[in-house]
Amino acid sequence: MAGGRQDLTQGPIASTLLLFAIPTLAANVLQSLNASINTVWIGRFLGERALAATANASNILFLIFSALFGCSMAAMILVGQHMGRRDVDGARRAVGAAATLLLGISFVMMAIGIGLTDKLLHLLGTPADAAPLASAYLKMMFWSLPFSAIMVLLMMTLRGIGDAMTPLWFMIVGIVLDAGLNPFFIAGIGPFPEMGIVGSAVATLIANGVSMVGMLAVVYWRDLPIRLRGRELAYLLPGPALIRLIFGKGMMMGLQMFVLTAAALVMVGLVNQAGVIVTAAYGVAFQLWNYIQMPSMAVASAVSAMAAQNIGAGRWDRLGSITNIGLLYNFLMTGVLIALLTLVDDHVLGLFLGAGSPAIGVAERIHLLASWSFLFSGATMVMLGTIRANGVVLMPLIIMIVGLFACRLGFALFAQPWLHFDALWWAFPVGSMASAALTWAYYRQGGWKKTSLVEQAERAEHAPA
Q1: Which of 135, 173, 316, 368 would you label with 324, given CA atoms 20 to 30 Å apart?
Q2: What does the DSSP 8-state code read for residue 274?
């Protein structure tokens, strides 16, 4: 049902999964475009130092958002499983606990972050001429954390009840406000104060605040299962056992994002050894890969939401079809995108590098050798989407560490004497196929089905304080 709560345990799987994945894909694309637009505004109005400042600040913010996203994902799974059981009260208990947890994390991180901003930037090795701008930008972004935390929670739990459209609409509202207000606050256009780089953060704060309030209004206006009122407000004071469960699952999911980022940073360090032309080529190829991965990320998110409801409903018989159809969509959507970009890669790469750049040929080779690996990494994401839908987080983390560090980075290091710098690009398919094989083996083994997350939550809620 477009724009509303949907029962994901009934009806045809293929069409339901596709219609659920498309809004998530659109949201991912819009989010990336918004980041690009804001980067353009900062670069045009404030120059290279401001761009360097936001890049350094973004590294710190990403770590914090990993924790917020992980806990929101855990809440989405709990809400989805409760909805599959037709247990609306249980879904609301999960929302109340997650809201308290996320607000607590965001306020603590805000206070610590504002106090330690300059030290954190120094630890990152932020260039001295960019440090004051990065400090001002980051401090203002820390003020927006509580708004961002509740906004992410609302988006994820709405998907948990089967509503993928409402998060998309308010993503659009936030992006229009953020991108639209950026130049006015940065440059002081019209009645707006000239705030420089801080203005970009203020625009983000306003956009997140409006999106959060708008989503809350819709949730209460439509009386959706994630709203709390009356006696249900007591769910904002959950028992410590339920908080520990959501926090533990959330931190493990957030740690997976951290591992992914750490492996990417190590790879950048290896690429840097090849010189500036290769580094520039890799940077541009990486920009293309961000978009190549979006279909599989959207499909994996849809698979998680759909699988969670079916697990809650005891419909284990549908999980195999959900996963298999998700895998099919991944191969079709990602494969078509890779093929199209390969056909026109010289034109697309030229947009970033300039038509006569010597890095274009290098970037084309990187794309040719490595981009097809995202068919396998996408398949891994889809299978892990089903596994995570039951709250299983340790084995996915182990598989990610083995695939990224032992296989991808290990191959990149040890194959260089024979393949030279091509070893870096071949490392992507080697690591992706290893991760896919390990994930498939664990998925087929079935140990992740033993206990549902909602059963763990029920035990936690009845545990003594």
Answers
A1: 368
A2: T
Spatial contact of 353 and 360, defined as CB atoms under 8 Å apart: yes
Strand positions, DSSP E, 333-403: none
- Residue reference for tokens 């639209």: 180
Please, is 249 exposed, middle or buried when counting C-beta atoms within 10 Å of its C-beta (0-12, 13-18, 19+)?
Answer: buried
How far is Cα 198 from Cα 100, in angstroms, rounded to an integer? 29
Rg (the chain; Cα; Å): 22
Q: Please, what is the Cα angle at 273 between 268 and 279, to 5 degrees?
A: 55
Q: How far apart are CA 456 and CA 388, in angstroms?
A: 14
Task: Using a cut of 0.85, tell me whether the model's pTM lies above it.
Answer: yes
CA distance 38 to 42: 6
The DSSP-derived string for 35-49 is HHHHHHHHHHHH-HH
The answer to whether the CB of 17 falls within 8 A of the CB of 322 is yes
Instruction: State pLDDT tens for residues 390-436.
Output: 989 999 999 999 999 999 999 999 999 999 989 999 999 999 999 99
Measured between alpha carbons, how far is 194 from 302 in angstroms, rounded to an integer? Answer: 42
**Paired tokens of 359:** 């890095």
Smallest CA-to-CA distance from 435 within 401, 392, 391, 411 is with: 401
* Contact in structure between 365 and 346 (CB atoms under 8 Å): no
Q: Which residue has the tokens 């079916």?
A: 310
pLDDT over 90 (residue 34) = no
Compute the residue count for the chain. Answer: 465
Contacts of 249 (CB under 8 A, 6+ apart): 70, 71, 74, 77, 391, 393, 453
**Tokens in use for 7?**
């029962």
Q: 3-class DSSP state for residue 415?
A: coil
**Residue 454 contacts residue 82 (beta carbons within 8 Å):** yes
If DSSP codes are grouped into helix, strand and coil, which group holds residue 7?
coil
